[in-house]
Amino acid sequence: MLNQRLQQLDMPDRMKRLRINDQGYPIPWFVPYIDGKPEFRNFDGEKFGVAVRHRRCWLCGEQLGVHLTFVLGPMCMVNRTNGEPPCHYDCAHYSVQACPFLSQPRMRRNEKDKLEGGCAGYGLKRNPGVVALWTTRSYKLFRAPMGGKGYLFTIGDPERIEYYAEGRTATRDEIMASMESGLPLLMKIAEQEGREAVDELQRKYAQTIELIPANDERRMKLA
C-alpha cells in the first residue's frame, strides 16, 4: 500500500505500474536493486542508456513526447546542466510532492554505505529546499569534464518553469534564499578555475534571477 502521506496525491497512470517499497513509496524506473532491495541513492546505468537512446521517462520508464521536464535544483538552473535524463511533466510534478528528499527540505542525503556511481559532475551535497520543473523541447548530452565519469545534459531553453518547496508552489523569497545559499558553493568551484569562470558564473546567475517569477505566479511561460 502507498504511504499514508501519498494517498491524497494524484499519481499519474504511468507511475501506477511501478513497484512500491516497504515504506509505501513508488520505486522510480531508474532505481537499481542491490541484493533484491531498491537503492534510491543510485541509478541503473543500463537504464540511463535506454532513457537517452529511446527517449524514456526517467521516472516511469515510458515513452516521452515532445516536451521534456527536468527536475532541477537552483544551481543546476544556473549552469543549465543536469546529471539525470528528463521526465514527463506529470511524473516530475508528482515526484516533487511525493519524494521525501524533494518535499522535505530538512531531509539530508544518507551517504552511509553508498556504492560508487550516480550522477556525473560535481553534485552539490545539499538539499536545496526548492526545486524547479524546467520544461523544454531539447537537450544536448556531453561527457563529464575534467576526467569525470559519465555524461551530463545541457538543458535547452525553457517553455515553462515551476518552482516547488515542501511539495507546494514556492514563494519568491524561498527561491531566492535557495539561490543565495547555493551560489557560494558554485563560486568556490569557479574560483578554482580562474577569473573567466567566475565572470561566466556571475553572468549565468544574473540570467537565472530573471527567470524567477513574482510570488503570485505559479509558473512562468516563455514565448
Brief rundown of the structure:
The chain has 223 residues and is α+β, with helices and mostly antiparallel strands. It has helices spanning 45-54, 74-79, 89-98, 100-103, 172-193, 195-209; strands at residues 33-34, 37-38, 68-72, 81-82, 131-136, 139-143, 151-155, 158-165, 168-169, 219-221. It has six helices and ten strands, in the order ββαβαβααβββββααβ.
Describe the protein's architecture and organization.
The chain has helices at 45-54, 74-79, 89-98, 100-103, 172-193, 195-209; strands spanning 33-34, 37-38, 68-72, 81-82, 131-136, 139-143, 151-155, 158-165, 168-169, 219-221. The protein has a domain at 66-221. Strand 6 and strand 7 (151-155) form a beta hairpin. With 223 residues, the chain is α+β, with helices and mostly antiparallel strands. Strands 3, 5, 8, 9 and 10 form a five-stranded antiparallel sheet that branches. It has a three-stranded antiparallel sheet with strand order 4-7-6. Helix 5 packs antiparallel against helix 6.
Using brief descriptors, characterize the structure shown:
alpha+beta, three-stranded antiparallel β-sheet, five-stranded antiparallel β-sheet, 223 residues
User: Per DSSP, what share of the residues sits in E-state strands of 2 or more residues?
Assistant: 15-25%
User: Which segments are poorly predicted (pLDDT under 50) over 5 or more consecutive residues?
Assistant: 107-111, 113-125
Kindly report how far apart the N and C termini lie: 42 Å
> Which structural class do you get from the secondary structure elements?
alpha+beta
Radius of gyration: 17 Å
Percent helix range = 25-40%
What is the general shape? globular
